Amino acid sequence: MDDKASRTAAMIALAAMILSVMPVARASPPQAPAFWITPETLSYDTNHYHVGDKFNVTVWINTTGPSYAWQVQVDFNVSQINAVRADYTGAGKSMFFTGHGTVAVSATVDNTTGAVVHGESLIGIDQAAAGFGSLFWVEFMIAAAPAGNETLTSLVSVDSNPDNTFILDSDSNSVPGVSMGSATYTLSYLPPVRDVAVTDLSFSNYRPKQGVDNVTITVVVLNNGTIPETFDVTIACNSTIIVTLTVFDLGPSRNATLTYEWNTSAAEVGRQTITASATVVPSDTDPTNNEKSRVLTILSPTGPNTDLNGDGRVDMVDIAMVAHAFGTQEGDARWIPAADVFPDGTINMIDIAMVARDFGK
Question: On the chain, which terminus has fewer CB atoms closer than 10 Å, C or N?
Fold first, then answer.
């Protein structure tokens, strides 16, 4: 890529980055002069937002004539939300005063009375033309959750006291008739979604010899719900419980991997169904995904590996199994793991020949 193309690509990337962080105004600003807040509707629910979660608002200005300085106080309900921090929307200044030299100050955050105060002034004989733009953002943290089925509702508003909120023109006179906007904050209670699932079950050995080979059983579980869950996972061989494991405080949308080393001494020779079952939590939205089963074959400790069904001898049952699975690969409908005697992932004439060679043993 030549230098010109490289510079063009860099400019496009920079423009995309700037656009991605710029605050978004509503479709049209209110009639000037005005301060307002976006978004004007702050609607959250307890399935997706909790105490400690954060959100942002942006304060905007619209003017009818040249302006020199501004100050805005944003009021909020401290029993429901707290202000964490605030800063200009531009680099060290407001987007509204872009292109001008400014005296920047640090925002004052007061979570006792519930107020954020921010301001900015031009320098010297400069002035900003009439128009609109963003001033600063405020990051809030949710401080309270609704009890029962209630909804918490309050305003995040621009303070209407002219001593707290004002626009100054180039002669340091307050601009009259400034309207003050607000945003409505709500946090609604929704019943939690509860759903735990077993998503995978696998074995370190699908054809262990009875009492000779241990098998590592691996179970993967998922919390599909919106609250942390503690639940049991029971692993069983047919109807006989092998072990019960407990998953503690698994967070929403989180996986957990459980492993257990199984001594096969007590297992019966032959094809066995291993099942992993998660406790059905109260109000589980999909109890059908709480269980997963897979088959493994317990081999006779003295039998050959070509004893596919593990009954201690190689006979027509074993021949029929490998013949039925002939031509398949793992994942195919007719795939039988035990029939892949030569473990290459495909059941072919090599596997048939190996079983046929041991026929009668």
Answer: N
Assess contact for 314 and 360: CB atoms under 8 A: yes
SS3 category, 355: helix
Buried b (16+ CB within 10 A) or exposed e, 88-97: bbbeebbbbb
Beta carbons within 8 Å of 184's beta carbon, 6+ residues apart: 40, 41, 42, 153, 154, 155, 156
* Count of residues in the chain: 361
Residue 106 backbone phi and psi in degrees, to 5: -90, 140
CATH 2.60.40.10 fits domain 192-302: yes
Where are the chain's structural domains?
22-188, 192-302, 304-361
CB atoms within 10 A of CB 297: 22
The reply to whether 22-188 and 192-302 are identical in fold is yes
Q: Let me know: does 198 contact 278? Beta carbons within 8 Å.
A: yes
Does the domain spanning 304-361 belong to CATH 3.40.50.720?
no
- Using a 10 angstrom Cβ sphere, with 0-12 exposed, 13-18 middle and 19 or more buried, the burial of residue 50 is middle
Residue range 3-29, pLDDT digits in tens: 444 444 444 443 443 333 344 445 578
What distance in Å separates the CA atoms of residue 1 and residue 153, rounded to the nearest whole number?
Answer: 55
Taking only the tens place, the pLDDT of each residue in 64-86 is: 999 999 999 999 999 999 999 99
d(C-alpha 55, C-alpha 256), whole Å: 29
Report the percentage of the chain scoring pLDDT > 70: 92
